[in-house]
Amino acid sequence: xxxxxxxxxxxxxxxxxxxxEVKGLKVRYGPIEALHGIDxxxxxxxxxxxxxxxxxxxxxxxxxxxxxxxxxEGTIGFDGTDISRLAxxxxxxxxxxxxxxxxxxxxxxxxxxxxxxxxxxxQSADLNERIDQAYVLFPxxxxxxxxxxxxxxxxxxxxxxxxxxxxxxxxxxxxxxxSLGLAPLLAAEIxxxxxxxxxxxxxxxxVEQNARAALAIADFGYVMETGRIVKAGTxxxxxxxxxxxxxxxxM
Length: 251
Ligand SMILES: Nc1ncnc2c1ncn2[C@@H]1O[C@H](COP(=O)(O)OP(=O)(O)O)[C@@H](O)[C@H]1O
Ligand SMILES: [Mg+2]
What we know:
- This protein is α/β, with parallel strands linked by helices.
- It folds into two domains: 3-95 and 170-248, Rossmann fold (3-Layer(aba) Sandwich); 102-168, no CATH class.
- It contains ten helices and ten strands.
- It has helices at residues 58-66, 88-94, 111-117, 127-137, 139-143, 154-167, 184-199, 211-217, 235-240, 242-248, and strands at residues 18-29, 32-43, 47-51, 73-78, 81-82, 96-99, 172-176, 203-208, 220-225, 228-234.
- A six-stranded mixed sheet has the order 6-7-8-3-9-10, sandwiched between helices. Strands 2-1-4-5 form a four-stranded antiparallel sheet, covered by helices on one side.
- α7 links the parallel β7 and β8.
- The structure holds adenosine-5'-diphosphate and magnesium ion.
């Protein structure tokens, strides 16, 4: 049974201090509607997981949040401002930073220059300090800082993409399947770092197909199916829910 067959009221994240609040979001690709009216919220300081199968619409949702694709209906509120019509760079300036799906590091450039790129809109005063903080999170990037990014393994490139996003001093960090394609141990390491970033006070929206691992570290989670959010709850609630187990956890 698919979760969408259950008509349950959709709770929002319990904490009323929403940093991000999305209402009635509909998104089209030409004639095809990909998101059919999405409502959700991310409370300040929380790690919120958005899980769902391939093709559910997770990347589309992130693209609309970062402003590279425009919704056809609905509103996006961020930190008390309606950002529904803001250009992508204005959203970055407000603190919405994304590490894109598929990493997209600049292969010929050095690891450290890739990290610096993330700080293009910042004053350089504390730049070196921020780079050092990234190296504390990802010591392997420090070891390899002078090598070209193209020589890094997939997991290291994912770390680099996150380190670069952190240079923008995100208030909200959007992560699109950071564990995709990684061996289990590396995937677990990446998600441990995501957990640590939350502990440092960064609000995070984590998109994952790896529902079990994402919900295990999430304060709150949403399950997406074919362009709709079909279930919401705390990480433990969703992990213990019989139908989430059946549909997404292989139990
Ligand atoms: N550029 C695009 N043009 C047309 N359809 C698209 C495009 N990108 C995604 N889609 C469709 O939108 C739906 C959601 O895709 P996507 O957001 O990538 O899902 P997910 O990230 O959950 O795998 C899918 O049916 C996909 O085929
Ligand atoms: Mg995707």
